[in-house]
Amino acid sequence: MTSVPDLTEILENSPSNWGKWGPDDEVGSLNYLTAEQVLRGVSLIKRGDLFTLQRLIGDPKGDPVWPGRTPATKEMVYDESDWDEGGDGPQFPGGLHYADDKLEAFLQGSTQYDALGHVWFDGKIWNGYDARTTIGGLQKASVEPIANRGVAGRAVLLDLARWRGVDALGPKEAFSHEDLQACAAAQGVELRPRDILLIRTNHLELFFQDADGFYADFGEPGLVYSPELVQWFADMEIPNLVTDTIANEVTHDPNSGAALVLHNALMRNLGIAFTEICDLEKLAEDCASDGRYDFFYVAAPLKIHSASGSPVNPVVIK
Length: 318
Ligand code: UVW
Known about the structure:
Bound molecules: acetylphosphate
Distance between the termini: 51 Å
CATH architecture of the largest domain: 3-Layer(bba) Sandwich
CATH class of the largest domain: Alpha Beta
Order of helices and strands: HHEEEEHEHEHEHHEHEHEHEEE
Number of domains: 2
Radius of gyration: 21 Å
Helix content: 10-25%
Low-confidence stretches: none
């Protein structure tokens, strides 16, 4: 069995943005999305059509989650049956009845923003904070500062599945930043510095067709690590990577065998925000029909204290 190098070795000379926005920074490359960038995004609103990118939580067809996580469960606390004879529905003057329900959910178990402190190696999270600050809840680089800040700017959809002429990318299919550039060129859209990148693979379609098969030899398609790719993301000052897969990158690096290398190279080291498990289908249909792949993107995860991620329903306006 060949041994897998550890992330320390793989990313030894990888670029880092630690300290770039000061010793207390917790939002990383989202700092690139200045007011000027927000207005650049807003200027792309031409028709006023909205696209929401969140997948349904509690989808009757199933919720795709990272292996080891479980889909959210929703439970009714009160419904009309609680006011049947013998029921324990609270009695209010005037006869009010109401529905209440609660959710038990992995914060990374649906469309979500990862906190920058979500992944690490070598005992350090984003900006060099000690990984022990994650114990009992993230004291540093939780999702809270991202939620307080919000995210908005020009975004570009890179429809990798359509560009490769397939309905959906298959397991472990890798692509590079050069593929992103070629896809953009084929779509007739320019990739500019500080763009939010949305990548469509439609891979989760395979989960909805056959969930057992999807998990049997789990390996998602996605971007694959190379020093050149990481440098390209750094040079382009990409603030946010948004995809329709569970983990935004090829699960195991086909070259080294290491898991989730880009979570570390892009999120931990460069501070790029990751948004995962999006539904890009309606947006992709629209882009294919009007030929316009750039638009305004806006999102804010939920404000959850010290959390490593949070559900979100990003909105695109064309
Ligand atoms: C893991 O970190 C395992 O996955 P994700 O980023 O998809 O939440």
